[in-house]
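Table S2 (continued). Query chain:
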Amino acid sequence: MAKSQKEKHGSAPIRFAHLAFSELSAPGRRGIRIFGLPREQLVMVTIASILLGIPLAVIVAMMPFWDQVGDFALLMQLNSYVAPAVYGLTHEYRAEALPRFPLRRFLIASTSVIELIILFNFAALFARGVRRHALLVWTCCGREKIFQYFGISCLIFCSLWYVLFFNWEMLAFLATGRRSGGLFAYLVMAMPIVTVVFGHMATIVGLGGCRIVSRKLRRLRKVFYSLDFSMFAAATGKRQKP
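Corresponding output:
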């Protein structure tokens, strides 16, 4: 009985990931998908990114140049508000479990990479193909579905950011459990995936919102132009009367 419960709880993240991939790869009208890939390809890309991207990211995060990046004035001021737990550490800080591991350097690299992923999603809108696909998703996948996915991804992203970079009290509480190591590994692996999903959904919502605003402004301009023209025509008509 205990074994079956353990297997049930252990497979919960797998079931959640399967459900998330199925929802994100579900086609909308005209076969448009949010990420443009069917479920099998999306799963393969994600697994390859985890197996290759995370070890590579850890290696890059160990490079000493991140110490200079962390001391950059603008970045330091920004992250002092959004990631105070990270910037409260000193360069000499070492965890008791890993005395030689440069924790501050690794966390600065992690926050910087996550911020770059979000910025890259918005910078990609300068490409015509990316902008066209985002508008097709906004048009064909349903506004309620898009806002729902955006809200869920935003909530999960903010929760993970709070636990990993903002306040470590929750992380310390979770570390007291027996399966804290596995839970921490799930949080670390989930963070870049959630960041990509959140950044992608944020760009779609932002681009769609700008399109709605531009259309409304265009209609207002047409109304103002028609009013100005009618007033001008009425004024000139009165002047022509004897």
